[in-house]
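Researcher: Checking consistency across runs. Here is LysR substrate binding domain protein again:
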Amino acid sequence: MTIRQWKVFRAVVEQGSLTRAAQVLYMSQPAVSHVVTELEQQLGYTLLDRIGRHCAVNERGLQLYHKLVPILEAIEDLEQNTADFEKQAPLRIGSSITIANMWLPSLVAHFHSLYPKTPMRVQVDRAKEIVRKVLVNEVDLGFTEGVCEEECLVRLPFSRYRLTFVCRPDWPAAKHKILKLDQLAEQAWLLREQGSAIRDSLDSALRLRQIQVKPAWESVNSQVLKQAALAGLGIALLPEQMVRPQLASGALTEVKIEGIELENQNWMIYHRDKFESEAIRGWKHLIEQTGTENGDE
């Protein structure tokens, strides 16, 4: 039996004749008759009593009709609402801590205004962990920063940020116009954890110069490091946007380091084999637009 046969038979019962059923189904009367006969043959019993040129549904037909109606209604409801399933499926987003602090909330709010029916689940973790989650399909989209070289990932740039060394104005390092490289080891450093994009940027720059520093404070939270710097506990490496108000007010001052200027690129990433749903295409358009506005095409 097929759903088409069921729908034709339902129309015959509800319209009271083969002719009227054919009209509402936009079929010929012989075609309707053929479908019902075919259904009867498959069932092994008749559904209509045929007397001369007239036919009427019999008791077996009525019993089948009452069982078919709720099934067909459920199928038709499914057909009508399937288009919304994709929009209603939660989109899994992973973000590095820095991006989650500074860019992601406004991006998510903008996306939600465009796709209000699409729910989102956000996970915040280290940049390297976000890359791993995208690779193993634990998240659909990742927002990460710094170096991202995996060939199987699609990377869309959308902004970049400068990293700045800051301390309180009365911290000893503040009196130096530029810190020499041989002075770095003796400083009290307030740094992000190893594996974070900000820490990787610093470690890479120091590794090239064969320098190692040991942090006095190490944290997954940049705000913690900013507060430690404000308390006069050392030199923190932070996104410039995060400390711009404190630099402007004089609560913090920038420390220049000989030959070291650091900047991180922000990316939206997804696996190249990932099916691009309407929601993912929407995010791509939003990120491309944001990148264009920020000069990161």
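Researcher: Does this match what you'd expect to see?
Model: One thing to look at in this run: The radius of gyration is 33 Å.
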